[in-house]
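Final paragraph of the annual report: two paired records, presented back to back.
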Amino acid sequence: MTADTADRALLRRFLLGLAEGMNAAADSVDRVSETLTRVARAYGDTDAGFVVLPTVIIVETGEGENERVAIRSAVNASFRFDQIAALYTLIDRAERAEITPLDGINRLNEIGAMRPRIGWFVRTFGHALLVTGLALLLAPTWQGALIAFALGAFIGVAKLVRSPTLQLVFPIFAAFVCALAVFLIAPYVEIGDPIRLLIAPLATFLPGGVLTTGVGELAAGQMVAGASRLVFGLVQLALLSFGILAAGSLVGVAASSYSPLETSTALPWWVAPLGVLLFAIGNYLHFSAPRRTFGWVLLVLVVAYTGQTLGGLFVGATVSGFIGALAMTPVVLWVATLRGGAPTQLTFLPAFWLLVPGAAGLLGITEAVGTTQGLQDFAEAFTSIMSIALGVLIGTALYRVVHHGAEELADFHIDVPAALAEEEAPPFWARLVPGTPRSIWGGRRPRPSGRVEREPQADASRPTPASDESSPSSQGGGS
């Protein structure tokens, strides 16, 4: 194996690792492809091609006889916030070719093996705070908040078990246990709406980010990835709903109990900001987020909740998530561009859970199966999910237009290999300047792409253009 072949093999493996890490960070496949393209170009491979799906990654590098393809089946991994921050720091360095592919692979392995900087007890306490904050927003009663804290602590401890087999059935188990506890306590304690209170301890299982990312991928033309994510998210919602309905059947809950109820008492106005603050602190502790990111996560949560609240007042609860997503998306993208900012996924995911698209879907499926209202509730839940996804898409588009200009609009274009590309003809005004390529004053002639210009008095010791074409410095180096 030649040195050049070994370098390309390392680059392919590095690109595969980056794609696998971004999948573990719950990033969209279109953004993964764009990132890999920038990294490959930074390392001098302008002809690299990629096929990225949620479970399969294909990387092709080189051209002609040197063309090679590498395939990787993505593992079912999920990164914490500290791992996501470390991953995007590495990506930022890779986009500037500041790290060798071998060192990048070693760094990826270090990120995958990172131990949480926060101990298990504090992370469990963080999950309890996260659940309590969301409960104050969904079903605001003090009794309900205390029950949510206890259920959040229980789920936080159970989530410490890292078993791929148990992770498949754990959402059903969590939904069943939480529903059983709430249904048994509801007749004796004023907890507000039991169904909405159930959403809080199950928040981190809700596929709100998966559903919203899937809709965004469909809008970006990634039909395979988008459709598969939607199916996966809906199946996960169905499993959670099954756990709730199973607990209701065991306890003997009437069909009317699955419908949302209004709370009989109203808490002070400052309970909602307190809920958002507790939700932010809980995310920071439970997911072991870097210290510098807490303020940015809190800012995005405040913007998202404020937008959703205003949207509920003016346009209704069904599409209020659209206003919240539209407001917070430019803030998320802006924070990611700052030197001391936070990666987009790190601030997007808590905002998704706060806007609760998955919670609306879980309510819709539970009511559709457990009551006689049928598909009307499910349709309203799906409309809520679509409105949040649409808000993210429009917010992203507006940010890119303002930040990058109209050149973001893409046209159909096929790139010619760099070695065969012809030099673009200069404009007429440039030809009027003496000494420029193709000048009408008889200046120097343009040099063909990939060849070295020959002087009229070249001696025999000069290399021929053919030998220059075969040299590494003239192969595919053009941008």
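The closing record of the year follows.
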Amino acid sequence: MEHVYSHLVTLLGDKFEVAADQIRPDATLGDLDLDSLAVVELYVTLQEEWEVPLDDSEATAELTVAEVARSVAALLAPEKAGGTP
């Protein structure tokens, strides 16, 4: 999951211009000033980059950075033999 989390931190900083010192595992997307449209855009971007079927109807500003990373990692785990999130 560390790789997914690191990529998510980079994405939040580069694409959504979130300051690195604001991004913590327990920070919600709302804490990072992402509105509902930005949260859906984040989910769509993650789906395209990781080729995973994230359900963007579950994308809310109340999700934490760690929860988003766990969701992606869980979807990637079946593709990797023996991989655990």
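Confidence is low (pLDDT under 50) at residues 81-85. This concludes the annual technical report; the extension proposal builds directly on these records.
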